[in-house]
Amino acid sequence: MVTLVRRRPRGQRGRCRFAADPQPPGARSGLRSTMADERGSSLGAVRWRPGRHGRRDPPAWTRSLAEGEDAGFFGPGSAVWAVNGALPTLVAGIRALLLQTLHPGAMAGVHDWSRYNEDPLGRLDGTVRWVAMTTFGDRRSAAAASAFVSRLHEHVTGTYVDARGVERSYAANDEELLRWVHDAFTEAFIGAHRIWGGPIPGGPDAYVREWAQAGRLMGVQDPPTSVAALHEEMDAFLVEAKPDERVATAVGFLRKPGLPGLTGRLYPILFGGAVASLDPHYRELLGLRRPWWPAVTLTRLFLAFGVRILGRMSPSEQNARARIARLDGEAVPAPVTE
Predict the structure, then answer these.
(1) How much is the CA Rg of the chain, to the nearest whole Å?
(2) In the chain, what are the domain boundaries?
């Protein structure tokens, strides 16, 4: 969803925190406390990253997914678990960020409030954690995570000039912006999975229909429930697209975010796959060209290698399955901690 960095107006100093990092009330917020207090990055919510000396432990908060009193909004066998728990989400996240820039209101929010260029992993951490809690958590945890994001976005407001040259106001919790971000996320994830993922129970329409619940939790009224309705709604939004200098700057950063170490060296494969997998109209609006090299094939090889290293089931899903087994009275495996 909208993952902005909340900060004070320019010219004032003050501590900022990540608006999409759904820590429970009372917990310290911000990337620094997340990294220091929770072993590993929230990137491990769905998949955690290999460290220099082997796999890093998944973040401690993933153990909370073994707790709760119900199976959640989705559960084993759902289309959402099949898509959001699979490794193509690595590419889907990049696709989603690219698509989100095409709404001038969303881009204005990023420009005015976000420090994505200073801390790209921190911005991604908050998003991944929200996705994991909504996908694999029980209903109370999923609703609480979404409500926490909404509260932190209450002060993310401003103005922007639309494609017609008219100044308009925006707020991160505006239903229009929430709808666009939800639609872009849904298209990005289902699009990536259709290329690089496995079978989806019930097909792509089932994913759009099920993931609509995540949109409702964030305040989207009547989100699309089929692929056709999703694309129809996105086409209507893109009539107002404004591919300007702000978009070009954001896309340029997404192309070369300056990630450290091995992650930075491998990232161009994922970015190339994300660009190649976009609809040609989206690429044109973003000012991108399909890579000349076989980006889809290399991304497929990269993801296949990732599955061999990381396994097919994330710590989040394993802990969620442990919760459901406990509720069903089955033998419960210990929560995944390493």
Answers:
(1) 19
(2) 5-9+70-327
